[in-house]
Amino acid sequence: MVFRDNVEYTKDCRNFTHVGVGCCQTCHSDPEYAMAVVQVDGEPTLLCCMLRAFFYPGNPNQKLSPEEKLLRAIFGEAPHVQDLD
Ligand SMILES: [Zn+2]
Ligand SMILES: [Zn+2]
Question: What are the residue boundaries of the structural domains of the chain, listed by start?
Fold first, then answer.
């Protein structure tokens, strides 16, 4: 078991090398700030922006707040992106 921001995750980018998406080295060099836990195949997974963009194409590169990370980890869905106009 691994915890990040009090969110337990069971997988990370290394479990998804088969999807053919290259990792973002910027994120991996600064994982404390750039990596986020999202739900993939029902499992909380720590991903860099490249993998998040792959699994959540409607919401690429968004820096998630801890609350959003927690909600994603719990509910497994991307938060609705609001049009702030
Ligand atoms: Zn990665
Ligand atoms: Zn990145």
Answer: 2-75
Distance 10 CA to ligand 2 centre (A): 20
76 backbone dihedrals φ, ψ, rounded to 5°: 70, 30
The most distant pair of C-alpha atoms in the chain lies apart, rounded to whole Å, by 41
Dump pLDDT digits (tens) for 21-78: 999 999 999 988 899 999 898 899 999 999 998 988 875 445 566 666 666 666 665 5
Q: How far apart are CA 2 and CA 62, in angstroms?
A: 23
**Distance from the CA of 24 to the center of ligand 1, in angstroms?**
6
| 22 Cα–ligand 2 center, Å | 10
Strands 43-47 and 7-9, sheet pairing = unpaired
Confirm whether pTM is higher than 0.70: no
